Each structure stands twice: as C-alpha cells, then as structure tokens.
Sequence to fold (345 residues):
Amino acid sequence: MKILHIIFQMLTGGAETMLVDIANEQIARGHEVELLIVNRGEDEKVMRTLDPAVRVSRFDRTPGAAPLLLMARLNLFALRRRPDVIHVHAHKLTGLLKVMKGRTLFTVHDLNIPMIYASRTHMAAISDAVAEDVRSRVPKARIEVVRNGIRTESIAPRGARSLTKPVKIVQVSRLMAEKKGQDILIEAVAALRKRGYYVDVTFIGGGDDLDKLSSLATERGVASYVHFAGNVPRAQIYATLKDYDIMCHPSRYEGFGLTVAEGMTAGLPLAVPEGGGPWEVADRGRLCETFTNGDPATCADALARIIDNYPAALERAAEARRYVEENFSVKRMVSEYEVIYKNLN
Fold:
C-alpha cells in the first residue's frame, strides 16, 4: 500500500513515538510510506529513529500561519501523491483535508481532543478510554480501538534483584504538570520522606515546567531527592529503565500511557491513578497499585505498599511484562491498522 502519514511536528511525545514505530513496521512489511511534517519543529533524536526508507516531506510552516494557504497546500499535496491511505495524527488536519475523505484515518492520541474538525472522519482510538471519551461527545462516531504497541524486545528487563538504597522511582514524560502530574509525585516523595522512607525520583523528559517543578521540590525540602534527566533518546531509556525500582505515572489525564507499557516491559512495579489510559494499560488496575487521581497522599500510600511488599510487587511486575508482550506489540498494532486501511470508504 501507499501510505501517507501527516503530523504537525515531530517532537518528543507519545504520538510521535508511536508514529515512528508504525512507519518503520510498515516499511518492513513492504509498504510505501511517506511522512509529511507540516510545521517547523523536529527533534533530531526522534527523526534518527525513523527508517531511512520512509520518505519525509516538509512544509516548514510557522505554526498558526495562513490556514487557508495550508488547506490549499495539503489538498494539492494529497492529490499529487494519490496515496491509498492518508493517516492523520492531529485533529485540525482532518478539517483542512477536503480530498480523499473516504481514504483518511485519524488516530485520536489522547483524551479531550476537540471533535469539531474530526467528527465525520473515520477514527482510531489508542485505548478504550479514548474511544469512550469520543463517543460521549460524538455518539455516532466511526471509531475503532487500536491500542498502541511497543517493541518489547528492545527493553532490558530489571530482574528480581532487591530494592536499591535509596529506592529509585522513575517517571518518563514531558514536564507538563497540569496533565502529567509531576507535582503530585514530588508531593508524594516529600510525604514518604517524612514517613521515613528512603526514596528519590527521576523525571525523564523535557518541558516548560522544569523551573516550576524544581521550585516545588525546594519548597518541600526534597530538592536533593528529585532529579531531572531531561530528554533522553528512547534507546537509552530502554537500556536503563531496569536500573530503577518503581515506575509512577501520576497523570491527571492520559489517553494511553506508552511509557507505562515500557515500564511494565522493563519489569518495574507500577503505581498509577484509578481510571484513564495508564490504568487500562495495567489491565484496569490488576497489574499495578492505584491511587486517587490528583491526590499526593494516596499516591504516597500506593508507593509505600509497593516498597513494603516488594517481592510480591516483583511477581506482579513479571506478570505485567508478559501481559504487555502479549497485548501491546507493534506488529499487532500495525496489523490492526492494515485491516482498517483496507476497509476505509
């Protein structure tokens, strides 16, 4: 098949990571794949992970500039390329594309995505939570669930070793506290330290909230136990997740939680809020400790339960690794997309 993926920017994030994996697997299966990046904004580390056989085109547009001109350029580009499928990864792009509507698929990558542009487009949701969110606003939405996949074979497992001193907690995410909840985890670490738990936390990922979160750690007296690693190449993350003891992903809302599946694959005991994408990834809470969304006290409680019962937590983590391998592979994800592609009309 001739497949055209379109996205605004290729920065560091779950949607971009997933897109790279989809495109690379499609190339491996013999498809002809092109990626159109509409706006300026690329992370070189992300782009280096893209198979060289993927044809990359760029509009090099300034974000927000001349939407009518963008509409004309997009539609002319699509008409010239004549792909079998246009796979769109941003909701506004579905409204700008007027040609080949019957061959267009929009992947909804998160909760609370506006549907004003996409409601009439065939959609794929990355989780049941996302599909339910869309249907709650567009009851007749044409939407199917295609859960994200990861390359589990690339992630080194932690194994059954004992806890480190201090206990090393990790979150992998953009520094975007309003959504990703890093402030909740900092508050939880402060609470655990007061209870006598010897813990620290490393946040892997960049973002605009670095100064805000650093200040919060200082205010709570835990600056020495809160580390900000910045953006790290995915291969390095996959190689070093095993060096941590626990993953905590305290997102206030999250459509899937790709990094949660990666942590589970690494064999890390997991703590996530009740409900939402990460909870769904962990088999609706069966394979993790859960806490009340947005509540640092119950987050601290969940982490304490893991620490206090670590051998049992490791047993559950081993089951979680097997669960991810069976349910969230890239090959399965791409096969499901191929079925949808063939049935678009």
Notes: The longest strand covers residues 32-39.
